[in-house]
Amino acid sequence: MDQTLIESGTDGGAALMPHPDVAPSSGGIAAGVLMCVMSMSCIQFGSALSSPIINAYGPAGATWLRLVFASAALAIIVRPKIMSYSRSQWIGVLALGTVSALMTTSFFSAIARIPLGLTVAIEFLGPLLVATLGFGLSRQLLWPVFAAIGVLLLAYDGEEWVGNWPGILFAIGAGAGWACYILLTKRVGNAFKGLEGLSMSLLVAAVVSTPFGFAAAAPHLTAFGLLEIAGLALLVPLLPYVLEMVALRRMPTSSFGILMSLEPAIGAFAGFVILSQPMTPSQMFGTALVVAASIGATIFATKS
């Protein structure tokens, strides 16, 4: 898995700006592992907990509300210098913000239709393809093939196909968005200081999603609903970003990439615990195939 993939969060979650490799502290790796697990749990359980919000406001409305709260909170912390950026910086954040809005809407649209574990596994194919295509048309393309077989196993519960075409297409769209998101995150991370690029891209994403999200969410907003959404915005993406950023300072990026490969399995577990989405043994094996393919791509990349 290449550097850009290792340094980027998921779904909808946290985008990690490029960091150089640093020597991990002797006692810091265990803490880094714990932070990675906490980050992935925040992202996937946050996605599962978003189900009532999606049902109440629709995927576009839920996306807009989460982006509004997350972008406002980060802007207060970072205080980006909006009037000081160059044309190329603005192009970067406009592209990244637009992709972020579309990716999140697609992801929410998918989990509203198909199981969370299947959605995350399909979405994971996007960054996995980015990583393996970086090595050209070689045997590394076997990793996405293994992952695709895992997705097929996830989509069948032994009696019937659990997915539907709209949900699958939205998940594929989220995966394509994630692939673009990784490439754009690297560009934006190199163009801005600290978290300014992330803050500006979230602001752009909130604005881009407003025409669709406001109309869907505004008629149904309540005080309790706003409080609930504010909490979910902290759960994803702000807390995962902080956890991943600190974790990368405590452990090698190769180890970080292997740990983040567990995301589809955690997504499936979150779907089982929060949304009561059971899994058959073949579906569990499919999840394991997706995770193994990601780990294999990561290990190969570190040896190349």
Automatic annotation (TrEMBL):
The keyword Transmembrane helix applies. Its main location: membrane. Residues 166-296 form the EamA domain. The keyword Transport does not apply. InterPro entries: Diverse_Substrate_Transporter, EamA_dom, EmrE-like. Pfam families: EamA. It comes from the Bacteria. Keywords: Cell membrane, Membrane, Transmembrane, Transmembrane helix. It is found in: Cell membrane. The chain crosses the membrane at residues 27-50, 56-78, 90-108, 114-134, 164-185, 197-217, 223-243, 255-276, 282-301. It is a multi-pass membrane protein. This is EamA family transporter. It comes from Rhizobium mayense. The lineage of its organism: Bacteria, Pseudomonadati, Pseudomonadota, Alphaproteobacteria, Hyphomicrobiales.
